[in-house]
Write the structure tokens for this entry.
Amino acid sequence: MKEGFRQSMAWLHTWSGLLVCWILLLVFCAGTASYYRNEITLWMQPELHGAAASKVTTEEAASVAQQAMQERATGATRWFISLPGERNPATQLGWSKPSQPGEKKRGRRGNFHSEMADPATGEVLSKPRETRGGEFLYRLHFDLHYMSAIWGRWIVGFCAMFMLVSIISGIVTHKRIFKDLFTFRPKKGQRSWLDAHNVTAVLALPYHLMITYTGLVTLMFLYMPSGATAAYKGDQDTFFAEAFPGRSDERKAAGVAAPLTPLAPLVRQAEQQWAGKVERISVNNPGDANATISLSRAAGRDISSKQPSMEFDGVTGKLLSSDGDALPGAAATHGVMYGLHIARFGGPLLRALFFLSGLAGCAMVATGALLWAVKTRQKQAKALAAGKRPSFGLRLVEALNIGAIAGIPIAFGAYFWANRLLSVTMEDRPKEEIACFFGAWALAAIVAQLRPSRAMWRMQLAVGAFLFCALPVLNVFTSGSHLGASLFLGRGPVAVAAFDLVVLVLGLGLAYAAYKLKPLPAKAAKAQKAADAAKPATTMEAA
């Protein structure tokens, strides 16, 4: 009876993973890259690399930003200031102005303007090229693209639920789960793929469980709204106001001019209370007697994604309210779950560990899909040895494996290459970069469907390896800050050099996989063919 239950869990594990594995692979790849979305965006905007050398305190940056806003944002109804940090080299300034008569209104706050400024001088930096950067990859991993965000989140949530079922059923299926962690037998066909799948799954098992469950929790009000709807009779605004209390309504402008209090002392006061840095400043009704100033703490102090904030009177500098220091149970729990998922609390070492665990998740999903193809091909060994074609399902899965496992790196590489090669003045430039991502992936998937073979694996892996390995070289010719400049000249932001190093390592890994799929010598090919008659292998078995 126990064995029957275990077998049923094995069936559930196989199909709950296989049916959604290609979407899950995209989600894992994009989500793993999102741990460094700020660094990716910085790499994709070489015009801002010079700002990374500026070393100023948050107080100094706030004072310089205030002076710059007073000069450039005359008549604005609201200021937005994002102060520089370890992962954001420049100060981002934004302001809203009311629409003038006869002028088309854009958004609820009227006309919005933004620019990047040097944190030390306040001077406008060279306008960076338009790009979605790492934000596109972040949104891709839960919104998908070219569809409604709601539909994308439903699809990703459906796949995440399958993932959670697959993980739990996989734990039940494993008899020797800890022994499998230390077992890998290369060049053993199906056994090798099973070992690789087990190692990558068990090694980062706590991470896989956490990231899947917290991913579902972050969107739980979309997936399970019935409880709040029934309790509050459909009044979601009241539910969110009680579950996640925030600051009271903003004060309206008095229409009386008054100078704005200096921001630097307020930043100092907030940082002393929080023992952490201020990240964002927003000023409502600047230059008015009813002006208010809101400060939000930078992430990294604790796990929760809900950071505390303080509100001051914009004229006197008096503290009006302090929010987020003691959250209600529901808000605190949700904040911790979301914070665990996005890992903004982690330092460089912990973020790198999350990144490596995400790569293990990518490998787990990929080896699981390949393992199904290996087992299915062996089941069809006699028919294939007799000259028959593989079944439609097997051929489809093998083609989808190539298009996803080898095609997604091609898409990532094409996205980064497009960022440097497309004209900086191109209209709708971010859309064109994203189109290159999906265009390259679609081409790889279509070509894989035409001939899902060993040669196709090798070709697509080689293309991905070239795109990744050549990115640091491309950066040399399109940017003054690159891996060579950091290593030998001691200049350039560390994040840019780290990006070049990581893509180079990933590219070398793809190149090694392509090398292992090199054509077999004539004698070896005959021996392999004879072995295939007894125990057929997949197109990836030699790797």
About this structure: The CA atoms of residues 493 and 518 lie 38 Å apart. The longest strand covers residues 91-97. The beta strands are 78-82, 91-97, 111-117, 278-284, 292-297, 309-313, 319-323. Confidence is low (pLDDT under 50) at residues 528-543.
